[in-house]
Design a protein that fits this description.
19% of the residues lie in helices and 39% in strands. By secondary structure, the protein is α+β, with helices and mostly antiparallel strands. It has 2 domains: 24-109, SH3 type barrels (Roll), CATH 2.30.30; 128-291 and 320-451 and 481-497, Sandwich (Jelly Rolls). The strands form 6 sheets. A 6-stranded antiparallel β-sheet has the order 1-6-2-3-4-5. A 6-stranded antiparallel β-sheet has the order 16-15-17-22-19-20, with no helix packed on it. A 5-stranded antiparallel β-sheet has the order 9-8-11-27-25, with no helix packed on it. Helix 1 (2-18) crosses helix 5, helix 4 packs across helix 8 and helix 8 (463-471) packs across helix 9 (473-497). The longest helix is centred in the last third of the chain and has 25 residues, at 473-497. It starts with a helix and ends in a 6-residue tail after the last helix. Residues 1-22 and 100-119 have low confidence and may be disordered.
Length: 503
């Protein structure tokens, strides 16, 4: 009954959203004088994430401001005020005009902006392969600035705001100063609450590794697998080092949730203490495709759906995460003395852009295993959902407390939160401790982002299928499997070719 009521409410919101007939045009504040005066309502997206919906609006060149009567919404799109407003153009990130046939209240709930993605041939070829990104972070690797982290990839709405920890595993600072470049390279709005650097003391000759929960552990020694067996055969060469040479697979043509397994054999590295399985991986573009497909099915009602998410209870938020749970993470199992595989933990880092490195500590029966003893590990994961770049067995030392470093911000806006639009970039400068080579570096970012709708997606609006993705994700993954399979071979190529803003 509870599911039935939620479905009825969702379909009602979809029907309400479908009644909107919006012709949206966006302008930067520098072009405020060219705003379409025929628009009954003007939406002013502010740099701090707030939104004004104004009627009877006008632009003043003399005072560099816009005035009108209307409503003010906070970043979560909760109504916080109504009345006459005068807004300085310098505080505005983007103006939007709408020719609408619904009330200003419904217009105010529309968080995402409908724009064309006809910016590249790749997007026109397959709109679900269009480039999308959370904040992307570039760090020097000794040769060049390398994309080494992506922030809070699963935070696609204010209600899903979270803190993300990424290992800068390939960072090579040349001195005591580390520059991190953050970019917005897609048709999105990013709200970045903070960017910090964590510097964790390394053991001599070792590394520091993060668990899925964010705990940091010394890794005294790492051993690559001497055997790696998957459906395609030997996969050891692809996973020995974090170098961009990845092991991947393709999805099942009838069910996107179909699992596969990878069997690994290790010799326990030297030393004493606990062992941990190291996984360096990123997701494939299946996750991006599914997110974009959900937005396409929501269509013109996406604002209403997002508003429901922001105002809903925890059960609704959990339902939104249903697809992630159906696809799952990378499960780690280890063989006991009898050859039975026992679960040890899982890794699940959202995002297709940059590989992250995590460790899964093995349970107590594997503490104190002597050097050279054979260890058999099995990974269980969804086919075609993960790209594996590094697999290793680590001898763990003690838990590490990092030094937290705050940045100086180099850019137009100097303080957090930073609200970025396509093509924006900021540089953060961190002062490292003495002897920076003795520290492992991790990037901690917090925030959320809002995906802009693409006009090409609106042709697939389907409220019933949108509801199916939330209410029965397993059925949705079976339904979408044949369509994704038709595009899978070119998803990676088209995705990278369709960047809106290139670094």
């Amino acid at each position: 009954m509870r599911l039935g009521r939620w479905l009825a409410a969702a379909l009602a919101l979809s029907a309400l959203g479908c009644a909107e007939r919006l012709a949206r045009t966006t302008k930067p504040p520098a072009e405020a004088g060219t705003l379409d005066q025929r628009s009954q309502y003007l939406k002013a997206h502010m740099k701090d994430g707030r939104l004004y919906i104004l009627s009877q609006w006008s632009v003043s060149d003399a005072t560099h401001s816009v005035s009108g009567y209307g409503d003010l919404f906070d970043p979560a799109r909760t109504l916080v005020g109504s009345g006459p407003y005068t807004i300085a153009l310098g505080d505005v990130a983007l103006f939007e005009t709408n020719v609408v046939s619904s009330s200003p209240t419904i217009v105010g709930l529309s968080i995402l902006t409908v724009l064309t993605t006809g910016v590249t041939l790749a997007c026109l070829t397959n709109p679900k392969a269009c480039y999308g990104s959370c904040p992307t972070f570039y760090v020097w690797d000794g040769t060049r600035e390398l994309l080494q982290a992506e922030g809070f990839s699963g935070s696609v709405a204010p209600a899903l705001e979270e803190t993300d920890l990424d290992a800068l595993y390939r960072a090579q600072p040349s001195g005591r100063v580390l520059d991190v470049r953050m970019t917005n390279e897609a048709l999105e709005t990013h709200v970045v609450k903070h960017v910090h650097l964590l510097a964790a003391p390394r053991p001599a000759g070792g590394r520091v590794l993060a668990t899925q929960s964010g705990a940091l552990w010394q890794a005294l020694a790492l051993a690559p697998p001497h055997a790696c067996t998957a459906a395609e055969g030997d996969c050891a060469a692809a996973v020995r080092t974090l170098d961009g040479r990845e092991r991947t697979s393709t999805t099942d043509p009838s069910d996107l949730a179909t699992r596969e397994q990878i069997d690994l054999e290790f010799s326990a590295p030297a030393g004493q203490g606990a062992l941990g399985v190291v996984v360096g991986a990123r997701q494939t573009f299946l996750t991006t495709y599914l997110f974009y497909q959900a937005l396409a099915y929501m269509g013109r009602s996406v604002g209403a759906w997002m508003a429901t998410l922001e105002r809903g209870d925890r059960s609704l938020l959990e339902r939104v995460r249903g697809l992630d749970r159906a696809l799952g993470g990378i499960e780690v199992l280890v063989a006991d003395a009898g050859g039975r595989f026992q679960p040890a933990g899982a890794v699940s880092e959202v995002g297709p852009l940059a590989a992250d490195v995590k460790v899964v500590p093995l349970p107590s029966p594997w503490t104190g295993v002597r050097a050279g003893q054979p260890i058999r590990v099995r990974l269980r994961l969804t086919r075609g959902y993960w790209r594996l770049d590094l697999l290793a067995l680590a001898r763990l030392g003690t838990r590490v407390e990092p030094v937290r470093l705050l940045p100086s911000v180099m850019g137009k806006q100097k303080t957090f939160p930073l609200v970025t639009l396509p093509g924006d970039e900021y540089r953060f400068r961190f002062q490292l401790p003495e002897h920076p080579e003795r520290y492992e570096l991790f990037l901690e970012s917090r925030g959320y982002y809002l995906e802009w709708m693409r006009e090409e997606w609106l042709r697939e609006e389907d409220p019933a299928r949108a509801a199916l993705m939330f209410l029965n994700p397993q059925a949705a993954l079976r339904l979408l499997a044949p369509e994704f399979k038709r595009h899978e071979a070119r998803m990676e190529e088209l995705f990278w070719r369709s960047r809106y803003a290139r670094p």
